[in-house]
Amino acid sequence: MIVYLHGFASSGSSPKVDALRDRFGTDSVVAPDLPFDPALVRQLGFDLVNRFVKTRTPNEKLIFVGTSLGAFYASYFGHVYDCPIVLVNPSGKPSETLKAKLGTHVNYVTGDEFMVSLAHLDELAEMRKYVENNYSGSLVSLFAARDDEVIPFESMIESFPYTSKTVVMDDGGHRFTKHWDLVVDRVAEIINW
Q1: Is the pTM for the entire model greater than 0.85?
Q2: Residue 176 confidence class, pLDDT cut points 50, 70, 90
C-alpha cells in the first residue's frame, strides 16, 4: 500500500495521486484529506496502518510518500513503522516554519477554514523529536528542487542529511510537478526491492 500525504492547506486529490494510481492501481494508493491538527493526522495514520496490517497480501509493502508538510508526516510514520519513505520538498521543521502561519487559514482545495495554533506547533515539535531520535537514512528517499519558493532547499538537506537516495533538481519549484515521474519511478524501485 502506498500512502500519499499532501502538504499544507491541500488535499488528497491531485494529479500526483492520479499518477501514482495510474502506475500502481487505485486500490494500492491511499490519499486521505488530512486535517491540519497533527494529533488527528497521527491518529489517521495509525488507523491506516492498522487497516493495512489486517488486509495486506503476502510481500505487500507499506510505503509513505509525502510532499511538503505531508513529507514531514511521511517521515514520522515511516520511522514509527520502519518502512520506506519518499519525501518531496519536505518541511523538515514545521514547528518552526509554521510559526508565521499562526491563525486562521482556508484550504486551497476544499475552501474549509482551519486554525494553526501554538498547541499544533508543539505537537509537530514532538513528532520531529521522534524522527530525530530514531532517524534512519536507509528508509528515506529525498527529492528536492533548488528553486523551491516555499521551503529553502538547504533546510531540506539539513533536515534529512543521510538518505538511501537523494535527487536534487535545479528546477521544479515547490510543486515538483515537472519531475513527478522520477518520484513514481522511485516508488516502483522500492516495490521491487
Answers
A1: yes
A2: very high
Reply yes or no on whether the pLDDT at 193 is more than 90. no
Tens of pLDDT, residues 7-38 = 998 988 999 999 999 999 999 999 999 988 99
pLDDT of residue 4: 96
Q: Indicate the SS3 state at residue 42.
A: helix
The residues near 129 (Cβ < 8 Å, ≥ 6 apart) are none
DSSP string, 127-187: HHHHHHHT--GGGEEEEEETT-SSS-HHHHHHHS-S-SEEEEESS-TTT-GGGHHHHHHHH
Helix %, strand %, coil % of the chain (to 5): 50, 20, 35
Give the integer Cα–Cα distance in Å for 84 and 92: 17
Q: Burial-class residue 58 by CB neighbours within 10 Å (0-12, 13-18, 19+).
A: exposed
Torsion of CA 68, 79, 47, 66, to 10 degrees: 20
CATH T-level topology, domain 2-180: Rossmann fold (3.40.50)
CA atoms within 13 A on the CB side of 52: 21
**Which triple of cell numbers denotes residue 27?**
486500490
Looking at 47-51, 124-128, 163-167, which range is the least confident one? 47-51
